[in-house]
Design brief:
Elements (H helix, E strand, L loop, with lengths): L2 H31 L22 H4 L2 E4 L22 E2 L15 E7 L7 E4 L2 E8 L4 E8 L5 E8 L14 E2 L4 E4 L4 E5 L6 E6 H5 L13 E3 L2 E4 L8 E4 L5 E4 L14 E5 L2 E7 L4 E5 L5 E5 L13 E2 L4 E6 L4 E10 L2 E10 L12 E3 L2 E5 L5 E5 L4 E4 L11 E4 L2 E5 L4 E6 L6 E7 L11 E3 L2 E5 L3 E6 L4
Parallel strand pairs: 2-28
Antiparallel strand pairs: 1-7, 3-34, 4-5, 5-6, 6-7, 8-9, 9-10, 10-11, 12-13, 13-14, 14-15, 16-17, 17-18, 18-19, 20-21, 21-22, 22-23, 24-25, 25-26, 26-27, 28-29, 29-30, 30-31, 32-33, 33-34
C-alpha cells in the first residue's frame, strides 16, 4: 500500500479521535470548572452567579397583558412605608373600629412566589415584585385593587434559589414611573399604566454591588423626577433620571461600604435635604443636590443583617434599631460650619427596644415598634418605655401601620390585630386570623379602605373600611 493510501485511511480516524478528545475536554473540563458551573453558596450567603443582565435581548424581557381592570377606589400607598415614608396612612375612607366574629371581609387573594415583598398602590392598581419559580424569572405584577386580577406583568429571567424566601422589596410608583428592585439587585423602571420599559439597570454589573445575604431588601425611592438607590460598591448612593435612566450623580464610597436590607430615607436639616442610609459599615447622610457625603459615622452598624430603616424624629434626630442584640440608638445632627456632625443622644439595650425586621413608626411624638421578643411597645423620644403589649400579645417579625389613630399589626402566623395608636397604653380593639402563614413578614399597604397583607405564599386584600 502506498504512503498516500495509508495517510488517506488514517487521516479520517485521526480527525475523529481528535474531535472526541476536544468534546471530552469541553464537557468534563469546561463544564466542570468553567463559568457554566453554579457556585455553591455559603450557609447564609446567596448564590450570586447566573445574572441575566445587559441589553433588552440579553434580559429576554417579556410584557404580558391580561384582563384586569384598574379600580376607581380612592387612596394610594405608593411605596415602602407609604406616601410620606412614615408608615402612616393619609386614608380618607372612614375605617371600622371593630370587625365582628368573622373578621374583616376577604375581597380577594392571590398566590405569590415565596417571599416577603409588599404591595404598592396607585390609581387603583396594585404593584408587586414577585418571583416566578416555574419560569425562573423576576416578575413585576400589576393587579386590580378591585379583585386582584392581573392587568400586566413584566418578567426577565434570573436564577434564584430558595433562601428564606426570594422577593422582599416594595416597588415605588407615581404617575410616570414604577420602579422595582429584584432579589439579585436588578432594577427595572416601567410605565405604570402600560408596563412599557423606560430603563433597566443591573447594580452588580454596573456598580460592583454585593447582593446582601438573603437577597436584596432595599426598596427604591422615587423623589420628584429622580430615582434614588444605594448600590454600595463603586457608588454608595446614586440619583437616576426617572424617565431616561441617566445617572445624575454618584456618591463616593471611600470605605467600600456595601448594600444592606435597609432603605434610604430623606431628611431635611437646616434647610438642606439629604438621604440617610444604613450601609454595611455605618450610617451616612448624602446630599440630595449632588451626592456629596455630608456626614458618616461607624457608630451604628449590624454585622449580620441591617434591616430596619432610619426614622427621622424631628429637629435633626434620627432613630436606628436592629436585631441580633443591636438594640437601638438615637442620633442627633449638630451644625458645625458647613457640615452636619452626628452625635449619639442615647443607646438602648435590645430588652428595652430593638427591631429585627420592621421599622418603627413615629406618631404623636412617640415611637411604636415591635422589639425582638415580639411585643409591640411604645417609647417616648428620650428612649423611655411607656408601654408594652404583654407576653400574650406577640407579633414576631410581622408588619404594622397606623391609620386614623388605629394600629394594624399582623403577627407572623397571620393574625391581624386592631388597636388604638395611643401613647397612654396598649388598647386592642379586634383581632382575626386573615392568613394561614407561615412568615407573614411582608409590609402591608392601605388604600381605599382596603388593607393588603401577605404571608410567605399568599397575598390577601381585606375590607377594613367602616360599613
Amino acid at each position: 500500500m502506498t504512503r498516500e493510501k495509508i495517510i488517506g485511511k488514517l487521516l479520517p480516524a485521526g480527525l475523529a479521535l481528535a474531535g472526541v478528545v476536544i468534546i471530552g475536554w469541553w464537557w468534563f473540563g469546561s463544564n466542570q470548572t468553567g463559568s457554566l458551573k453554579e457556585r455553591i453558596p455559603g450557609a447564609d450567603r446567596v448564590d450570586e452567579t447566573n445574572f441575566i443582565s445587559g441589553t433588552a435581548a440579553q434580559w429576554e424581557a417579556k410584557l404580558v397583558k391580561s384582563n384586569g381592570v384598574p379600580s376607581n377606589l380612592p387612596g394610594s400607598w405608593p411605596r415602602f412605608r407609604g406616601s410620606n415614608l412614615d408608615n402612616i396612612s393619609p386614608e380618607s375612607v372612614p375605617l371600622a373600629k371593630s370587625w365582628g366574629d368573622g373578621g374583616p371581609k376577604v375581597l380577594w387573594n392571590i398566590d405569590v412566589g415565596e417571599g416577603f415583598a409588599g404591595a404598592a398602590v396607585w390609581n387603583g392598581r396594585v404593584y408587586v415584585m414577585d418571583y416566578d419559580r416555574a419560569g425562573q424569572a423576576d416578575a413585576l405584577r400589576c393587579l386590580s385593587l378591585d379583585d386582584g386580577r392581573e392587568i400586566w406583568r413584566y418578567t426577565y429571567p434570573v436564577k434564584i434559589k430558595r433562601n428564606h424566601g426570594m422577593s422582599r422589596t416594595v416597588p415605588s410608583v407615581n404617575d410616570k414611573l414604577v420602579v422595582a428592585i429584584g432579589p439579585k439587585c436588578q432594577v427595572t423602571c416601567l410605565d405604570p399604566v402600560s408596563g412599557a420599559l423606560h430603563w433597566k439597570m443591573d447594580l452588580v454589573k454596573d456598580f460592583n454591588t454585593e447582593v446582601p445575604p438573603w437577597y436584596a431588601g432595599q426598596c427604591p425611592l422615587i423623589d420628584g423626577d429622580r430615582v434614588i438607590l444605594a448600590p454600595g460598591g463603586d457608588a454608595l448612593v446614586i440619583a437616576v433620571d426617572g424617565l431616561t435612566g441617566k445617572i445624575i450623580w454618584k456618591s463616593p464610597n471611600p470605605n467600600n461600604w456595601q448594600m444592606t436590607h435597609s432603605s434610604l430615607m430623606p431628611l431635611e436639616f437646616r434647610g438642606r435635604r439629604m438621604y440617610v442610609y444604613c450601609a454595611s459599615g455605618g450610617v451616612t447622610g448624602i446630599s440630595a443636590t449632588d451626592g456629596a457625603i455630608l456626614w458618616q459615622t461607624p457608630d451604628w452598624k449590624i454585622s449580620i443583617a441591617n434591616v430596619p430603616s432610619p426614622v427621622p424624629a424631628g429637629d435633626g434626630r434620627i432613630f436606628f434599631c436592629g436585631g441580633y442584640d443591636a438594640g437601638s440608638m438615637m442620633l442627633q445632627l449638630k451644625e458645625n460650619g458647613s457640615k452636619p456632625v452626628p452625635q449619639i443622644l442615647f443607646k438602648l439595650k435590645p430588652t428595652v427596644f430593638g427591631a429585627t425586621q420592621q421599622t418603627p413608626i413615629l406618631y404623636r411624638d412617640h415611637l411604636f415598634g415591635v422589639r425582638p421578643d415580639g411585643q409591640l411597645v411604645c417609647l417616648d423620644l428620650n428612649g423611655k418605655s411607656i408601654w408594652e403589649s404583654g407576653g400574650k400579645n406577640k407579633f414576631g417579625g410581622g408588619p404594622f401601620l397606623i391609620a386614623q389613630g388605629l394600629i394594624y399589626a399582623l403577627n407572623e402566623t397571620g393574625t391581624l390585630v386592631l388597636a388604638e395608636a395611643d401613647p397612654s397604653g396598649y388598647k386592642p380593639l379586634a383581632q382575626a386570623k386573615v392568613l394561614d402563614g407561615p412568615d407573614a413578614w411582608g409590609p402591608m399597604a392601605l388604600a381605599g379602605g382596603r388593607l393588603i397583607a401577605r404571608d410567605l405564599n399568599k397575598m390577601v386584600c381585606l375590607e377594613v373600611g367602616a360599613q
